[in-house]
Glutathione S-transferase (Paracraurococcus ruber), 198 residues
Amino acid sequence: MRILSNTTSPYARIARIALAEKGFDLSGTRMLNPWADDAEMLGLNPASRVPTIITDAGLPITESLLILLWLERKVPEPSLLDGPLDRIVSQAGRAMGVIDAMVAIMIGVLQMDPHWGETRVGLRRRRSIVTGLRALDADPPGHAGGVPDIAVLTTVVALDYLRLRFPDAHWVEPLPALDALRAKVGDRPAYAATRPYL
Ligand SMILES: N[C@@H](CCC(=O)N[C@@H](CS)C(=O)NCC(=O)O)C(=O)O
């Protein structure tokens, strides 16, 4: 099993953390720019997006949440869904909404127009980030030890991506509960080894 990734993608990081927590060896990870029309990537994934996993049989598996679904079935223990299921999935959905909105802004800014974040759609995405993070901070995912569930995983990935991509944004509110959650799990090997960087 190998994974195609890059150093910033929150989606790829979700898959990498989940794989590492489940005990996969990620030393064969290939970092690439998914926007660069890489031949291996295009041959495996017509959408040319990270994460793309290649199974030992050569089959591509894509889409971060499908990868979590596949993994949970493939390697049930340790589970990333241990705990109150409805709450975990609900909170993970909130974090994914924030991630999607942040990535939409970055694509707009980097691939289209540096001021895309101030367009009507850009401001709508910004609102999703602010209100999504506010809701998560007011009612943060819990972590009592052990392997963090997908609510913790996606929330910490969202927070790290926010700090990387929007370090000085005036609209980012204080997030003390989420910072505390990140401090609790951020040093786990799966998290520390995949911290995003430019
Ligand atoms: N829905 C996909 C989104 C993956 C995605 O958009 N990845 C970005 C990096 S953050 C990418 O590879 N973008 C390249 C492109 O859109 O052409 C998932 O959950 O895996």
User: Anything to note?
Assistant: The CA atoms of residues 20 and 144 lie 20 Å apart.
